[in-house]
Design goal:
Layout lengths: L4 H24 L8 E7 L10 E4 L2 E12 L2 E11 L10 E4 L11 E4 L14 E4 L3 H29 L2 H25 L4 H18 L1 H20 L2 H23 L3 H8 L1 H23 L16
Parallel strand pairs: 2-6, 5-7
Antiparallel strand pairs: 1-4, 2-3, 3-4, 5-6
Length: 309
C-alpha cells in the first residue's frame, strides 16, 4: 500500500500537534496520559495566583492549579480548579489555603489542609477556602508602630536636648559629685571603725549577752508566769468587789459625820457639844488646881483618929 505525500504530511502534523500539547501539559506538570481528580475552591481575591501554580500537601507537591475563572453570577467570586494526579482521599472539611505571596516574585501557591469530618470528598467537589495573611499586611502595621516609636524617641531626644543646657549639665555634675561623696561616707561608716560598723558590733555584743543570759531570762519569765497563776488563783475579782463595798461604807460613814448624824457627827459638827465639853474640862482643871493648892479642904488627916461630932 502506497501512501501519498499529503497523507504523510498530515500524519506528521497530527503527531507534531500531539507532541506540542503533551509537551505544554508536561511543562505545566500535567500528564495527559494519567487520570486526574478535579477539585474547586472559591476565593474573593487571588492576586499572585497563576495557572499551573503548585498545590502542596505537607510540603509535597500533589497537583497544580489548572484553571482560574470568574463566577458568572458573581464577579466577586473567583473559582479556582486544581488538578491532582495523585489518587488521594481528602476527608470532609478539607480546606485549600491560599498562601501569602513570595517575597521576591510575589507568586502564590496552595496548601491542602486535611479535614477531620466523616467520609471523603469526591472528584468535582468544592472544598473550603482559607487565605493566609499577606506579608505586607504584617509589615505595614509593624512599620507604622516602628515609625511611631521613632517619632516618640526623636521627641524625647529633642526635649532632653532642650533641657540639658549648660546650667543643667553643671547642676547634674554637682549632684553626681555629691552622690559620690555620700556613697564614700556611707562606705566608710560601714567599715568596722565607722559609726554603722560600731553599731552593728554593739548589736552583736548585745545579742551574745542575751544568748548567755538565756537561762536567767527563762527563770524570770517562769517567775512572772508563777505570779500570774497566783493572781489568777487569788480570786482577784472578789477582792476588788469587797474593797469596793468597804470604800462605799466608808463614804457613807463620812457622809453621816458630815451631816452631823450620830455621836461622832454631833462632836464634829455641833459647836454646843464642843463648848460643853470644853467647859467641863475647864471646871475639872480648876478643881484639880484647887485640890493641889488646898488639899485640906478635901482630905482630913488625924493622928489620933477621927473625933465624933
Amino acid at each position: 500500500m502506497k501512501f501519498t505525500r499529503e497523507f504523510k504530511i498530515g500524519i506528521v502534523a497530527v503527531v507534531a500537534v500531539a507532541l506540542a500539547i503533551w509537551g505544554i501539559n508536561y511543562l505545566k506538570g500535567i500528564n495527559i496520559f494519567k487520570s486526574t481528580d478535579k477539585y474547586y475552591v472559591v476565593y474573593g481575591n487571588v492576586k499572585g495566583l497563576v495557572e499551573n501554580a503548585p498545590v502542596f500537601m505537607n510540603g509535597f507537591k500533589v497537583g497544580n492549579v489548572d484553571q482560574i475563572i470568574f463566577d458568572r453570577n458573581n464577579i466577586n467570586r473567583i473559582v479556582v480548579r486544581i488538578s491532582m494526579q495523585e489518587k488521594m482521599k481528602l476527608p470532609v472539611n478539607t480546606s485549600l489555603l491560599l498562601k501569602g505571596g513570595n517575597i521576591i516574585s510575589g507568586t502564590k501557591d496552595i496548601d491542602i489542609i486535611p479535614g477531620n469530618g466523616d467520609g471523603f470528598h469526591e472528584s468535582g467537589d468544592t472544598l473550603l477556602a482559607s487565605v493566609q495573611m499577606e506579608i505586607t499586611e504584617l509589615i505595614d502595621p509593624l512599620k507604622a508602630k516602628i515609625e511611631s516609636v521613632v517619632t516618640a524617641i526623636d521627641t524625647v531626644m529633642t526635649s532632653l536636648s532642650e533641657l540639658m543646657d549648660t546650667k543643667t549639665r553643671k547642676e547634674l555634675k554637682t549632684t553626681i559629685a555629691n552622690l559620690n561623696g555620700t556613697l564614700s561616707t556611707l562606705r566608710s561608716s560601714m567599715q568596722s571603725s565607722g559609726t554603722i560598723g560600731s553599731t552593728l558590733q554593739n548589736f552583736s555584743l548585745i545579742s551574745e549577752n542575751l544568748k548567755k543570759s538565756n537561762d536567767e531570762i527563762t527563770a524570770i519569765l517562769s517567775n512572772f508566769s508563777a505570779v500570774s497563776d497566783s493572781l489568777k488563783e487569788a480570786n482577784l475579782k472578789s477582792l476588788i468587789l469587797h474593797a469596793s463595798e468597804t470604800f462605799a461604807k466608808t463614804s457613807e460613814l463620812f457622809a453621816s459625820i458630815n451631816n452631823g448624824e450620830g455621836t461622832a457627827g454631833q462632836l464634829m459638827m455641833n459647836d454646843s457639844v464642843y463648848n460643853n465639853l470644853n467647859n467641863a474640862l475647864s471646871s475639872l482643871d480648876a478643881l484639880l488646881i484647887d485640890l493641889r493648892e488646898h488639899p485640906k479642904r478635901y482630905v482630913h488627916i488625924s493622928v489620933f483618929g477621927r473625933k465624933d461630932k
